[in-house]
Amino acid sequence: MIRKLFHRVFRRGSVLPSGQSVKNAALIPLARHGIHRESVSPGARRTCEALQKASYTAYVVGGAVRDLIAGIVPKDYDIATSATPEQVRSLFRRSRIIGRRFQIVHVMQGSETLEVSTFRAAHDADTAKDEHGRVLRDNVFGTMAEDAARRDFTVNALYYDPTTQIVHDYHHGVADLKQKTLRMIGEPTVRYREDPVRMLRAVRLSAKLGLTLDPAVRAPIREMAGLMENVPVARVFDEMLKLLFSGHAVECVKRLRDDGLHHGLLPLLDVILEQPMGEKFVLLALASTDARVKAGKSLSPGYLFATLLWHEVLANWENRKARRELPTPALYEAMDEVLDQQGEKLAITRRIAGDIKEIWALQPRFDKRAGKSPHRLLEQPRFRAAYDFLALRAESGEIDQELADWWHEFQMADLAEREAMLLPDSGPKKRRRRRVKKPADGLANVNDAPDAAESRASDEV
Ligand code: ATP
Ligand code: MG
What does pTM read for this prediction? Predict the structure, then answer.
């Protein structure tokens, strides 16, 4: 059986025009890689079996195989096959073809969605590229060996057959994984030029798997980071979310900084890592995001971006207040200015910008602990996110812990207890009325007026 398989897969090695070699696969037995078919998701197994039954080749590929060998539960499964998208589509009732240029098929198995792609050809001299060498189209079907050669890191070019329980390893990925090294397939500088996002993937995957970057993978990043500017913003945004929501954001940021790689790779990282005032806050925010990912809780990009940019807003707001602008309108101006400056660079969509602003705008309202204001704040749809944000501000030392504790208690309390917790009302309007009655105290009216306006404005937040 193994011999038959060996012959099926074993092709002559060759070199592509790009200089990358198309290699033969080593066949790694169960005893060495340790993936029992039972540890593969039932959907992935069923999909491979159905394709094989129809006489196509089909394997679990990429991140899932890598994660299983590393003892991590894969978050999703990719399948690579010799069947074309149409052929895959016709085999599975619950499936649909997605993508226009390079079509892949989503196959639904129970609650799982498997991404099935046809073996893709490696790049060659005819591949369309931009003036920096970035691959623009990547849509030719190829052999399994070519498919392996176009993947980024050796640990990502592993193909697991659930039927035989054999891993097909084209680039010594299993050995690299065991030696905890992230190594590029082919020449790293060429591969970064083809797709600069691979620089970020290198950092993210090394943090996720606890791998050391091979020196050849790490060395060019500092110099080539600028190439990220040519990547479409939507793709950068996706990668940024993957990094921040990987469950290893703190480790990623630490690695980037230790290696001096944080400049230019991702605009957001420059923002995060260059705000000394907000560093503690940002690291706490990233740590709590990591904890949420690990606990399987939901995550909102708006909330995370609100934390990452908060100290920029604070600094801007302080400047405005120092220029005697009214606090609440000044906060709105500061929010808009920071989002204008960063929003485009970070590809923050309008909808997410809306979420971010809601969280920021609610912050000053936590200072009001008298009258009806606290009750009204509790009813805000975004109260929970805004309160979590407040708690983070307290934990980082920006504001008094007492304020966050008060709001924690206030939420838990019943109506009568809430009434008892309210602070005495010392609204500026009353003071102003009292002072109006004193004929000799005319100047006080002038000074108090902004406060009253501010109080009204902040109630409208
Ligand atoms: P994770 O899912 O943990 O984020 P992953 O490696 O599985 O990591 P995916 O984006 O799911 O990442 O990609 C699946 C596979 O596709 C990878 O394992 C790799 O083989 C290949 N791949 C992804 N991105 C690239 C890229 N930029 N260049 C080359 N191959 C890639
Ligand atoms: Mg994956």
Answer: 0.79
